[in-house]
Amino acid sequence: MKKIITLITLILSLNLFSQKGKIFIETNYNTFSHSSLSNFQKELANDINPQIPIAITDDFSSHVGFTLGYEITDIKTSIFVSYNSTGGKISYSDFSGVIRLEQPLSAFTLGGMYHLNLSDKFKIGFKGFAMFSNLKLDSYSKIGSVENKNLIKLSSIDIGVGTSLIYEYPISFFIIRANIGFDLTLGNQLNINGIQDAYLINKSGKQVTTGWTGFRSGLGIAIPIN
After folding, report:
1. CATH for the stretch 21-225
2. Is 88 exposed, middle or buried (0-12, 13-18, 19+ CB in 10 A)?
3. Torsion angle defined by CA atoms of residues 164, 170, 176 and 178, in that order, rounded to the nearest 10 degrees
4. Which partner for 118 in 5, 6, 122, 195 could form a disulfide, CB atoms 3.0-4.6 Å apart?
5. Which stretches within the chain are classed as H helix?
6. Is pLDDT above 50 for 196?
7. What is the pTM of this model?
8. Residues 37-64, mean pLDDT to the nearest whole number
9. Domain boundaries, the chain
10. Which residues is 92 bridged to in the sheet?
11. What pLDDT sits at residue 4?
């Protein structure tokens, strides 16, 4: 079975790169909301002893990501993979000890985009994609000589759609590429790894979702081939 999958992947790759197109790579700056996770983080902070002045030091802030893709020029279509990461952090420390709860969130994205040319340098793209997300709830505390550690791993598969305005300017053998757009992701439940039918909920009993929805921008290069 593994050999068959490898062969199919090789055939698809050969068919893809036999088409006239261009490889592109870009760095992205993303301002996704993550409101569900942010609210869940506040609940965690409030559950800690109110006499401890716990602080939220990172709140799933804007972050940098990366995208690699291939555009098939003749059919105005591209496929791409992306990586994004952000996270939250709650912490407190004094002479008596330390409390720390980190929630790193990351995702790989696989998707496709169809382009409509607006001019020689501008085009608009409409995309659909799937995101494979991983979240960790990594807690650590040490009060006096008592030390506690706990790690919970969660995962989610989300689907989404988006649109982008893309600008390309050819220079020598490569093309400067910039874009700005908006992604709308339909957040799925965050399942607890290793526990069947277990997922993350907030105090209201609602599912906590990843929240990869928001504005995305990118800057990179494209290299024509064939």
Report:
1. 2.40.160
2. buried
3. -20
4. 122
5. 2-17, 35-47
6. yes
7. 0.85
8. 84
9. 21-225
10. 99
11. 43
Q: What is the spatial distance between Cα 94 and Cα 73, in angstroms, rounded to a whole number?
A: 59
Q: What does the buried/exposed string (b/e) look like for 48-77 if buried means 16 or more CB atoms within 10 Å of the residue's CB?
A: eeeeeebeeeebbeebebebebbbbeeeeb
Q: What is the DSSP letter of 210?
A: -
d(CA 210, CA 71): 28
Pairing of strands 21-32, 55-59: unpaired
How far from 13 is each of 23, 71, 73, CA to CA, in Å? 13, 13, 16
92 touches 128 (CB < 8 A): no
Residue 1 scores a pLDDT above 60: no
| pLDDT tens digits for range 101-135 | 999 999 999 999 999 999 999 999 999 999 999 99
